[in-house]
Specification:
Blueprint (H helix, E strand, L loop, with lengths): L4 H25 L7 H23 L4 H29 L19 H9 L12 E2 L2 E2 H21 L7
Antiparallel strand pairs: 1-2
Helix pairs in contact: 1-2, 1-5, 2-3, 3-5
């Protein structure tokens, strides 16, 4: 028996979003790729949107109207995130300037020794240069596609009839 369309599309959205954020953390922790400022900001959309989609999935049978509202909100979060990820991708492709404050984290400096230690221990990661390219897209490019997919699939669950197949 197949899952109702009202659950299947948002369920796929949730799974895709979850896999995307797990991949981001995997590349950082296991692969050693340091995220830039924009990468970290893009993750906030996953941290906000995934729990909302999850609650929507849990409520889809008992409270379908509330679930659809949550799918709308979750989808909107991801589609807004795709704008930031698209900006990041465009900055990497040199279509426009990236943020001027991208490349390091603020450090409290009380002495020259503290400053030297901070400089030696800092690896700068630019928002305007792709760290790696997979199948022709950078992490930001894949993130843009991921967020668009998650947003659209979340919204697809709003308009699906309970027992229709997508």
């Amino acid at each position: 028996m197949s899952a109702p369309a009202a659950i299947r599309a948002p369920g796929l959205a949730f799974l895709a979003g979850l896999l995307a954020i797990i991949a981001a953390w995997g590349f950082q922790i296991i692969g050693g790729y340091l995220p830039c400022k924009l990468c970290l900001e893009e993750r906030l959309f996953y941290y906000a949107g995934l729990p909302i989609l999850f609650v929507g999935l849990l409520l889809s049978k008992r409270m379908p109207r509330l679930a659809r509202l949550l799918y709308f909100v979750g989808g909107a979060i991801f589609l807004c995130g795709s704008v930031l990820a698209g900006y990041h991708t465009g900055a990497e492709w040199k279509l426009w300037e990236g943020p001027s404050d991208c490349g390091g984290t603020p450090t409290v400096v009380n002495s020259a020794a503290d400053l030297m230690a901070a400089v030696k221990g800092t690896r700068l990661v630019s928002c305007s240069e792709a760290t790696i390219s997979l199948f022709g897209l950078s992490f930001a490019g894949w993130d843009t596609l991921s967020m668009i997919f998650v947003g659209i699939m979340s919204w697809r669950g709003i308009f699906a009839r309970r027992n229709a197949l997508i």
